[in-house]
Amino acid sequence: ARRSRRGAVIVSAHLGSFELGTAALVEHEEHVHIVFRRDIFPRFDRLRSKLRDRLGVVEAPVDEGWNMWARLRDALANDEVVIFQGDRVMPGQKGVAVPFFGKRLLMPAGPFKLALAAGAPIIPVFSLRTTVGRLRIVVEEPIMVSRDDGPLDARHPAMLRLAGVIEKHVRAQ
């Protein structure tokens, strides 16, 4: 997927250490952007931003609106990487309710819309804890998002595939 040089939308879930997974990723990718929502605690935000700055990661706060999305689309066009958490919709975000463990998971639509706009693959990546002090990085098969598969709703194959991959890793934990 990276050889296609269309960038990559990395989607993870709250299963292990997101920041340690990011540190592992920057060893292989030169330009990494993280989409996030600012925290209600400014001190936490400053610490998180300082860590990401040390890693050389560009922060992309969702509350910056359309300009941020345009910058991310341009980053993908430059073969860069954009990271999202894909298992939770934050206040103010749009989500799609997809089947998950016989119920529903509200997944953010942003990663899919961005991948579609840029023609970039979605690559599910998880940093899973194995033992104390150890992580295992799991990179799943790329998921392509296509307009030919219909609207980005609960029946879209890309959304169903990602939900299935997240469900598989939640079950294994």
Structure description:
This protein is of the alpha/beta class. The strands form two sheets. The chain has a six-stranded mixed beta sheet with strand order 3-2-4-1-7-8, with helices on both faces. Strands 5-6 form a two-stranded antiparallel ribbon. The chain has helices spanning about 20-25, 40-55, 65-75, 110-120, 155-170; strands at about 10, 30-35, 60, 80-85, 95-100, 105-110, 120-130, 135-140. About 35% of the residues lie in helices and about 25% in strands. The chain contains five helices and eight strands; from the N terminus they run βαβαβαβββαββα.
Task: Produce the secondary structure layout.
Layout: E1 8-12, H1 18-25, E2 32-36, H2 42-55, E3 58-61, H3 66-77, E4 81-85, E5 95-100, E6 103-108, H4 110-118, E7 122-129, E8 135-139, H5 157-172
Parallel strand pairs: 1-4, 1-7, 2-3, 2-4
Antiparallel strand pairs: 5-6, 7-8
Helix pairs in contact: 3-4
Could you give a quick summary of the protein structure above?
With 173 residues, the chain is of the alpha/beta class. The chain has helices at 18-25, 42-55, 66-77, 110-118, 157-172, and strands at residues 8-12, 32-36, 58-61, 81-85, 95-100, 103-108, 122-129, 135-139.
Using the alpha-carbon principal axes, give the shape.
Answer: globular
The total of helices stands at 5
Task: Report the portion of residues in β strands.
Answer: 25-35%
Rg, Å, rounded = 15 Å
Derived from helix and strand composition plus strand pairing, the structural class reads: alpha/beta
| Mean pLDDT metric | 92
Largest sheet: 6 strands, mixed
Helix and strand succession? EHEHEHEEEHEEH
- What helical percentage do the residues reach? 25-40%
Unreliable parts: none
> Taking strands numbered 1, 2, ... along the chain, how are they ordered across the largest sheet?
3-2-4-1-7-8
* Terminal Cα span: 27 Å
Total DSSP E strands: 8
